[in-house]
């Protein structure tokens, strides 16, 4: 609920700021889809491996563009099924406002949540039972507004750079460099993506650190500096007809020692995969 109010407040402030801008196109373009998918995740946090692995889940997709506003879902960028992180019907997506936009370049204010909360009571609410989480304080989901620059080097290649700062929980920072390449093979649209992310020490320690009050047998105190994550993913989209599409994909994440040395985590890699059939209106 707090995140929803922050989205509304952020949107209200941006709307006020846009009054003085030049007149924009007012067409409302949208895409809504309903799908059923199966996913499998190997989480960096072994205690948070989803009990929903292999279980069909209903998923929703909603993208739109209106004037300079837009919303986008993460599946084609992250190799992750939209909504599978904690089994929500409609998961977090990126809401943004373009400050400038041309054929090859755009600069936008964006807002999204990049890390799910976890902890003993959170896991219990998600149907995950793990003694490894006993004594841990709950970590809350973050909310990280930021600035993103995108450059389309060709019609099917994208480079982007973004910087985000959390304003609700850990107050840490994230810097992300992304490369995406789309190509066609027979009737498949294939999306390869590679992403390098830097996370500040505040963010790493909030989610993966262990305070003195959380120390238990086999779980020593842990604090670290900043860390890096390297992601690679591949997603394939196959149209069955005008409205029905099939998506499948896989992604793999590699973390530096700031993450993997934590007593809460396991060794690399973190893996996510999915298969989905979707009806698009």
From TrEMBL:
- The region annotated as signal peptide is 1-22
Organism of this sequence: Rheinheimera pacifica
Any idea which UniProt keywords this protein has?
Answer: Cell outer membrane, Membrane, Signal
Cellular compartments annotated: Cell outer membrane
Q: Name one Pfam family in it.
A: MipA
Q: Mostly located where? A: membrane
Q: Which GO terms describe its cellular component?
A: cell outer membrane
What name is this protein filed under?
A: Outer membrane scaffolding protein for murein synthesis, MipA/OmpV family
Family of this protein = Belongs to the MipA/OmpV family.
Q: Which domain of life is it from?
A: Bacteria
């Amino acid at each position: 609920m707090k995140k929803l109010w922050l989205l509304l407040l952020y949107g209200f402030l941006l709307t006020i700021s846009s009054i003085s801008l030049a007149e924009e196109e007012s067409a409302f373009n949208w895409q809504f889809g309903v799908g059923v998918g199966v996913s499998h995740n190997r989480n960096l946090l072994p205690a948070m491996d989803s009990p929903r692995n292999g279980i069909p889940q209903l998923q929703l997709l909603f993208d739109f563009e209106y004037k300079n506003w837009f919303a986008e879902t993460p599946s084609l960028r992250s190799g992750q099924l939209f909504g599978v992180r904690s089994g929500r019907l409609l998961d977090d997506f990126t809401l943004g406002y373009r400050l400038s936009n041309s054929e090859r370049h755009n600069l936008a204010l964006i807002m999204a949540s990049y890390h799910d909360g976890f902890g003993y009571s959170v896991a219990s609410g998600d149907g995950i039972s793990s003694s490894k989480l006993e004594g841990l304080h709950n970590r809350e989901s973050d909310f990280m507004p930021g600035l993103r620059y995108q450059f389309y080097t060709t019609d099917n290649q994208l480079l982007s750079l973004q910087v985000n700062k959390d304003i609700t929980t850990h107050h840490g920072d994230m810097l992300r460099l992304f490369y995406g390449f789309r190509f066609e093979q027979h009737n498949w649209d294939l999306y390869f993506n590679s992403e390098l992310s830097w996370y500040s020490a505040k963010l790493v320690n909030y989610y993966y650190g262990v305070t003195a009050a959380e120390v238990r047998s086999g779980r020593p105190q842990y604090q670290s500096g900043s860390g890096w994550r390297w992601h690679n993913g591949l997603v394939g989209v196959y149209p069955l007809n005008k409205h029905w599409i099939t998506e499948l994909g896989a992604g793999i994440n590699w973390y530096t020692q700031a993450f993997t040395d934590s007593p809460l985590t396991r060794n690399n890699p973190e893996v996510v995969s999915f298969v989905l059939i979707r009806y698009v209106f």
